[in-house]
Amino acid sequence: MTRPGGRRRTPRGPVPGETVDAAVLRELAMTDRPPGAGPLTVRGVRVRGTLDLTGCRVDGTLEFLECHFDEPVRMEALAAGSVDLSGSTLPALFADRISVDGELRLAHTRLGDGTAQHRPLLDPREEAGHGRAPRRVQEGHSSATVHLADARIGGSLVVEQLAVTDSAAWSLLAPRLSVGGSVRGRGLTSSGSLYLRDARITHAVDLVEADVGGLDATGLVCGGGFYADWGFRSTGQVLLRAAEIGGVVTFYDSVLAEPAGSLLLSRLRVSRLRIDLRERPSGRVVLHDAAVDVLVDDERTWPASGALFVEGLTYKRIESARPVEVRSRIAWLVRDPTVGAGAFEQLAKSYETVGDERAARVVRHARERHLRRREPLLSRMWGYVQDLLFGYGYAPRRALAWLLFLVALGALWFAGHPPRPADPRTGRAWDPVLYSLDLLIPVANLGYRTSWQAEGVGKAVALFLIVSGWTLATAVLAGARRALGRA
């Protein structure tokens, strides 16, 4: 439709409550608008047919607010100033490669077919039934309700109070998403999982109070924080593997519920990690090779034995809302069935960082005990002797106590059963304490061992002290050498 002067007339916008064809909205979106005319706003209408803006270029903002779309909305490769679908209801949104200069808003939007069929993100091995299965999604063959693969958003992606109820495995499929602002998903709910693999977020990801079926943000790069806390809930796995977060990653007061609520954070890089959950997770917590400056957890919500994996985890300090005794922290370590010497040493160094040398020695002592359990029987038996006598070199006072005990034992016996002099002409005065001490110390010679000769039972007691002295000395040397080599 044109005016007498030849200019194209702007079509009349629909009014709230009206039912319109999708072609009418497309025409409105594609109509040139004069500078300063403001956004194209359509509110409260029902849309028949498929609104297809694939490959279109629109100057300015598109606002389809509180609208009801009968068919999925297609915006693949759309270029626009901003897009706002807040408060609307639609079966699905296909917006791969969309490019907006401002925000993409889906606040309070309802998506899906209404089927409340929860699809938690499970371990690929469980989904496959046996063996290994690939985690990376085949994008062209995966069902999803919201598609944002390779999307470029100059401002923020606003999905606050977004609700996705569908039978699709993925509620949001957004690999390689690029957001110049933040992902604002406070209160988001989804029956399926969120896929943000290799996404680039300039500021923060906010999923406070969100309720999802899982999250795969493997390879995520985020300049600010990742906030899945204050009531965040997931019934499936949450993956931040190989992610790099500039601020904090926090799961404070979050719930990892049945059937598969887990945290997979291997190779995560972040300055502060909080995993002080509201309750014990139903699944695993995997921290293999993660690097954090400060780790915050809560003893009351540690994973069950066999469900924690910390080998390769590095940190400078561990914090907890409630003080955790060093032996409890050691019990935390051994919940990892694969834990090795490195994890114990990392914990010991964290205690040294805060100046607690005693706790560091306790951890290293526990390391020796733990490692000895994996050795052959004879090595384990020799380890038990070293532990009993010297604590593998980390309890030196124990060796002194044994020495004093054996000296006292020998002195008591020989005080009542003195041996005969080897040479009466020496005139050496008899002293049962020095005699026992001379028998016990294999590298020293006080002269009493050769000046007196035990007989009968006394000879057996003397032999016992000699063997005990050599055993004690050997254990001390072995333990000290091990402690010095590993400390």
Describe the structure.
The protein has an 18-stranded parallel sheet that branches. The longest helix has 30 residues. The protein has 487 residues and is α/β, with parallel strands linked by helices. It starts with 18 loop residues before the first strand and ends with a helix. It has 2 domains: 292 residues; 98 residues. It is built from 10 helices and 40 strands.
Radius of gyration: 36 Å
Oligomer: single chain
What percent of residues adopt helix (DSSP H or I)?
Answer: 25-40%
What distance lies between the first and last C-alpha atoms, to the nearest angstrom?
85 Å
Helical stretch tally: 10
Number of strands: 40
From the spread of the alpha carbons, the general shape counts as rod-shaped
Low-confidence stretches: 1-8, 128-134
| Overall number of domains | 2
Largest sheet: 18 strands, parallel
Q: Kindly state the mean pLDDT as a whole number?
A: 86
Q: What proportion of the residues form beta strands (DSSP E)?
A: 15-25%
Structural class: alpha/beta
Helix and strand layout, with pairings?
Layout: E1 19-21, H1 22-30, E2 40-43, E3 46-48, E4 57-65, E5 68-69, E6 73-74, E7 79-84, E8 89-90, E9 93-94, E10 99-100, E11 104-105, E12 110-111, H2 124-128, E13 144-147, E14 152-153, E15 157-158, E16 163-164, E17 170-173, E18 178-179, E19 183-184, E20 189-190, E21 193-195, E22 200-201, E23 205-206, E24 211-212, E25 215-216, E26 221-222, E27 226-227, E28 233-234, E29 237-239, E30 244-245, E31 248-250, E32 255-256, E33 262-264, E34 269-274, E35 285-286, E36 291-297, E37 308-309, E38 317-320, H3 326-333, H4 341-353, H5 357-372, H6 377-390, H7 396-416, E39 420-421, H8 432-440, H9 448-451, E40 452-453, H10 457-486
Parallel strand pairs: 1-3, 2-4, 3-5, 4-7, 6-9, 7-10, 7-11, 8-12, 9-13, 10-14, 11-15, 12-16, 13-17, 14-18, 15-19, 16-20, 17-21, 18-22, 19-23, 21-25, 22-26, 23-27, 24-28, 25-29, 26-30, 27-31, 28-32, 29-33, 31-34, 33-35, 34-36, 35-37, 36-38
Antiparallel strand pairs: 39-40
